[in-house]
Design a protein that fits this description.
Distance between the termini: 22 Å
Radius of gyration: 19 Å
Strand content: 25-35%
Helix content: 10-25%
Number of strands: 12
Structural class: alpha+beta
Shape: globular
Order of helices and strands: HEEHEEEEHHEEHEEEE
Length: 339
């Protein structure tokens, strides 16, 4: 087992288990250091391209930033807060905001420095029970973005009670529905059809979630429910589809995880206008229950400078979601975990 000091001095990617990844190529974090009580510095490296989070519009994929932030949750939980391996880290809410001008792709890997502060630390019987991680990222000394995550930690026994029959991994995967036929890849800014997570639902503001449990990045390792990163990707793709044909970059999100999205039933995502033209609200539903909701902030990339979002690229204002209050996380008790 790696000691804390060995991990802190690591100059290459950290061991996979500390970020809950199976593939070495999916590990983005390279080192961590404690600055003070509940404050840390973590370094990360983004490859020039990624098997799933590929650059577009000469920009790194914003979801690469979201995944980088996600990896800090298990890392700090294990190395700084003594959470045993095998415990389940469950997202309650997640948000991020990016400086588009510093997201540019380059001919060399991007080196990031993440400044992290942990607040709202709760313990139960001496073990970490919940925590909020606030992140500020720099790239080459310039501000790149911020992120905030609130999550809870549960032992395997508590997780089994929480999940009931759905917590048996092999049964959950065996009951998973086959992935539906996706919409055209270019509508969601993708090149490969296998990377599309939306399927047609007969409307321009509503889609069925397309879940492929064999996807090498979104299901890097087996899980008994739809992963949180797949839900974030669905929100991003839905926003891009709603804006089509105008290119759009998801420079920010504010999200709440309310309930697990299961693998054995169809799931739907719908968008509607936000308070401004550069924002879209969304809700993910399964069995007529909102499981995941929030808002995506969009920006036009530099190559499309001079264009702006307008009614032609806007979700329908007559959509039923526009009349529905998005459920805040405190009103439900079973959110989704970020693994």
């Amino acid at each position: 087992m790696h000691t804390v000091s060995a991990l802190a001095s690591s100059a290459t990617a950290l061991p996979r288990k500390y970020v809950h990844k199976a593939a070495h190529s999916e590990v983005l974090l390279t080192s961590w250091h404690r600055r003070s009580a509940d404050e840390y510095t973590v370094t990360a490296q983004w490859p020039r391209t990624h098997a799933f989070y590929r650059p577009a519009h000469r920009l790194h994929d914003p979801m690469l930033f979201a995944e980088t932030a996600r990896q800090t949750i298990p890392l700090l939980s294990h190395v700084a807060y003594d959470v045993p391996f095998g415990h389940h880290l469950i997202w309650e809410r997640f948000s991020y905001s990016l400086a588009l001008e510093n997201l540019c792709n380059s001919t060399e890997p991007a080196e990031l420095v993440l400044h992290l502060s942990c607040t709202g630390v709760e313990r139960r019987r001496g073990k970490l029970a919940a925590m909020t991680v606030q992140l500020r990222a720099e790239r080459d000394g310039r501000h790149l973005g911020t992120a905030e995550s609130r999550f809870t930690s549960h032992s395997p026994a508590v997780y089994r009670r929480l999940r009931g029959a759905y917590g048996e991994l092999h049964s959950a995967l065996a009951a998973a529905r086959p992935p539906a036929e996706g919409i055209l890849a270019h509508l969601v800014g993708r090149r490969l059809s296998e990377d599309v997570v939306l399927a047609p639902a007969g409307r321009s503001d509503r889609w069925q979630l397309r879940v492929d449990t064999e996807h090498p990045s979104l299901f890097d390792h087996p899980v008994d429910h739809v992963p949180g990163m797949l839900l974030l990707e669905a929100a991003r793709q839905a926003a891009q589809a709603a804006r089509n044909p105008l290119p759009a970059v998801a420079v920010g999100m504010e999200t709440a995880f309310h309930r697990y999205v299961e693998l054995d039933a169809p799931c739907w995502i719908q968008v509607c206008p936000g308070e401004t033209l550069d924002r879209l609200r969304f809700a993910v539903e399964q069995d007529n229950t909102v499981c995941f909701s929030g808002e995506v902030s969009l920006s036009v990339p530099v190559e499309a400078e001079g264009l702006s979002f307008g009614p032609a690229q806007h979700a329908s204002r007559s959509a039923p979601l526009g009349k529905r209050r998005l459920v805040p996380p405190r009103e439900v008790s079973a959110p989704c975990r970020p693994e």
